[in-house]
Each structure stands twice: as C-alpha cells, then as structure tokens.
Amino acid sequence: MNAPVKPGSKADRDALRQDVTAAGGTVADIAVEMRSRYRMRPREAWRHAHGWTLQEVADHITRASDQRPGEAVAADASLVGKWEKWPGPSSRRPSLPVLFAMATAFGCRVPDLLDLDDRRCLPEADLRVISNQPTVTEQTALLVAPQPLAAAPEPAASEVVRLAADESATWAQWVEASNVGDIALEQFMAETRTLASDYLTSDPVALFIRTRRLRDRVFTLLEGHQYPRQSTDLYVAAGYLCGLLAWMSSDLGQLRDADTQGRTAWLCAELAGHNELRAWVLSTRSKVAFWDGRLREAVNFARRGGTYRTTGSAAVLLACQEADAWSELGAEREALAALGRAGDARGSATGEDEIGGIFACQPARQENYAAAVRMRIGHVADALRAADNALGLLAVQPVRAYGTKAQVHIIQAAAHLATGEAEGALEALMPVLTLPPDHRLAPVTRRLQELSTSIGQPYAGGTAAIGLRAAIEEFCLDSAPRNLALSPGGGST
Question: Which domain holds residue 109?
Fold first, then answer.
C-alpha cells in the first residue's frame, strides 16, 4: 500500500503541476494554486510553478539580466532563497534589476512577483517604476518593432527642468522614508535589557532562541532603509544581541560559535561608534578566549576594553577578567594589580549600565572573581573570605545569578579541600549539585571537573572524597552543554 503524499512535498507539487496543466491551466495558474494551497511567497510559488530548483532559478536570472545593459545580476541559490523570503527574517530585498530579471526568467510581470507585504516594504520610487512596466507581450513587441529612422526630438528646456525636479523629489521621498520608528528602536533596547537580565536566572537554551529571534528582526531592518541615526541605534541593538549570543554560546560549550558572534558584535560596535558597546563586546571576547585556553588573548581583550571611557561597570568586569587570566597563567603580581584596578574602577564608576543583567558587574560578581583569583595564587584564607562576601551580597541582590552563585560555592569547596576538609567541600557543593540540568553551564562543569582532579592525598581514598568525585561525575553527565551536544544537530548554536 502506497504511503500518502505529504502536503507541500515535491511529489505533491509535481502532481499539482500536472493536474493544472492537464486542465488547460498556464504557469501563472499553477503559481496561483501554489500560493493558495501551500501559503508560499509569490516568488517561491513561481519557482515551484516551473518546477525549478533554487540554483536553476539563479541561472535563469543571471542569463535574463544579460538582456538588460547595465543591470547584470550575479545570482546564486542562497540569494534566490533570501529574495523569496523577503521581507521576512534572514532575507534580502530584491533590487529592481533582480525583479526585472526574475520576471523575464519566469515569463511574467514584476507585479506578479509581489504581494501586499512586498509593496508595503518597497521604496516608493521602486513602486513607481514597477507600475509603469509593460506586459510581457508589450516587451516582446518593443524588442521586434522596427526602430524609427530619426531620433526622437529632445525635450524642451522647461521639460528637462521639470524632470530634474521630479527626480530630486523622488530621491527625497526615498531618503525621508524609514522602515523603523523611534518607538520601535526603544522597544528593541528594552527587549535586549530583558533578555540580558533573564539570562541570569532562566533556561539558557530558551533565552538563546528568543535572543536569536530578536537579532534576526534587527538584521532584517538593517537591510532596509532608515535615517542614519536610526541605523546607528539598530547597530547598537544588533551588537548587544550578538554579544548576548556569544556569551550564551560560550556557556553552552560552543566556543567557536561564540567567537563568530563576538566578531559580528564587534563589527556592529565599530559601525555604531559606540564605546560602551565596544567595552562590553571586548569583555565578552575576553571571556570566550579565557574558556578556550587563549589566556594571553583574554588579557589583551580585557586591557583593550579598559581603554574605552564608559559610565557603568564595564571597566570593573574587564579588570576582573584580566586578573582571572593572569592568575590562570600563574602571574600573581599582575593578577593582584588587576584586582586593584577593578576596585578603583568600582569607586570611579558613574551612571548606570546601558543594558544590565549579564552586561553588568555587581559587587557579588566582582567578589566571585576576587575569590577565584586568590584561590589560584594560593591565598586560601583571602579566597574563602571573598567567597563568603560574594554569597552575602548575592543574598540581598534583587536578581540572584545562579551561575555566579554556583562558582562561588565551588571556590568554597576548593578552599576546604586545600585545608584537608573533604566533608566541608562536599557540604559547600550541595547547592551546586542540586542545580537543574538546564542551569549546569560550561563554566560550572569545567570548574567542577578541575576540582575533581585536584582531590589528592591524604583524603583521596576517603568516603567523602569518593562521594564527591561520584557526585561531580554524575552532575557533568547531565549538563546543558553535554545535552546540547548529544541532541540532533546539536554540534553548533
């Protein structure tokens, strides 16, 4: 027994083409059926009406554009897919030469390739040109009609002046038009702040999806047209969102993807000329480099970020990150000097952080870094004191970051192990070991694994030490990075 054909599948589309053709329908009729049955965008419907692949359409468009001097189009399958999706997410607006070449390739008029959403997003000047396009029959007649022997008379001087004025007016209308308003820009920043704050307490994968969706909306608008100041604001929003995606990718164990997001965030910061964003992007890149073992790069990113004048706590976090990397390198003097600069930056900070949440360094977060740095350089008592301070500050914070709290408890456990108290270490880790799998991020699992390998004599064979190792191993086996890596298609974020 044959399996039923899935609606919208290639087999279903092929059958529809055959049915419409057998009933005497044209390619245009097939396109109409494709749109109504499968809710396709117009340009995609015309492609499937012909039964062409994305690459076949690209080849037809490239050849068709050669017939229009000065309007050559170099199309490929990826571009065709983006032109089909426009004005949706991850799309690209087809230019007039593209639309004309596409219409020639499909044997239709440009208006046949557009729907209401397209018309709302196209510049008015483009719509004027499209509305005056001749039909395919008229185009053919123009190509084969005999040309007059005498050249057309030159327009009168007054007509030339009027045409020039019309052209300037059309350009001014295009410049004045914008695909985004100031209220929408405020909303983008507000949503970015919410995401940065929610990330401290929520499921990272769900937050990643929300952040990616908002980034795509901003990217789509940047491919359109707006005032220069609005473009700058969009680049700022895009930079923070890519920075968030970089931070999240790193926490999910995807360091290569985090690096890519960080580079894009930096490009946005440069295009916006925004120092606050530059500093936070460099902080993010320092974090990624640290967890990737590129400690010198982590130091350099943090130092470079510290050269930008900011009003919030970016300078505090950058100095903490520099200290973190120096301590991992075993450079005690440099690490302590960087911690001192973090304290100075806290004292001289003015104003609030633009975004907040993960892009802010509250005192508890600063104490967490201080505890980790002092633990690495062997100042165990100072590390334990800083960890206690961090937990006390976290207890009174409005938003308690579970990642920071977990790392503080791990430092406490390490301090207990350094003084031979395996049972005290296990007790300190209990709040960490009970974290739900979604909250078991890469920095936490990495620090726990480092702690497990440090369990040595004289208590390595003790009951508490054995239980501690087993608990850490079980914790890491059911963590967010591992679950993501084992999920279908989970090798990349």
Answer: 10-140
